[in-house]
Design goal:
Helix content is about 80%, strand content about 0%. α1 runs antiparallel to α2 and α1 packs antiparallel against α5. The protein is elongated and about 60 Å long.
């Protein structure tokens, strides 16, 4: 196995780890969104508690995803990639900052959860796209 193949394999592994972290964050955000809806229609203390529990779990996952995306970005810098691979990982690294900025009221929380979910979905899509390109490079 030559050096390029090793670098591609390392990038693929880092990308798969980042993708798993993003998908886990997405699951917690989805759960938080569902609890948030219940909370807004009068779910009471329990639904508020569950919503915030899921938000906290999502926060931990999003922080881990940010670190995993940084590692993925470093591994990608070791790979000579073609211009057809659109690498926009830098924009992923700040998505959690927006999620936690100023959570005040239930409807604002719900909006922040939705925004973060969209960011996570976008990040997943882009990581999958990059992984597909790396896997094509492995098979060349």
């Amino acid at each position: 196995m030559n050096r390029d193949e090793i670098e591609i394999r390392e990038a693929v592994m880092a990308g798969q780890i980042a993708l798993a972290s993003l998908e886990e964050a997405g699951r917690y955000l989805s759960s938080a969104r569902n609890w948030g809806i219940w909370d807004m229609i009068g779910g009471g203390f329990f639904s508020t508690m569950m919503k915030h529990s899921k938000i906290n779990e999502a926060a931990a996952c999003m922080e881990r995803a940010r670190e995993d995306l940084r590692k993925f970005k470093r591994e990608l810098s070791d790979v000579s990639v073609g211009e057809n691979i659109g690498i926009e990982i830098g924009s992923f690294l700040t998505f959690a900052d927006y999620f936690f900025d100023g959570l005040i009221a239930d409807w604002m929380v719900q909006s922040k959860i939705q925004d973060a979910s969209a960011q996570v979905e976008d990040a997943c899509y882009q990581v999958k796209h990059i992984l597909e390109a790396l896997e094509r490079m492995q098979n060349e």
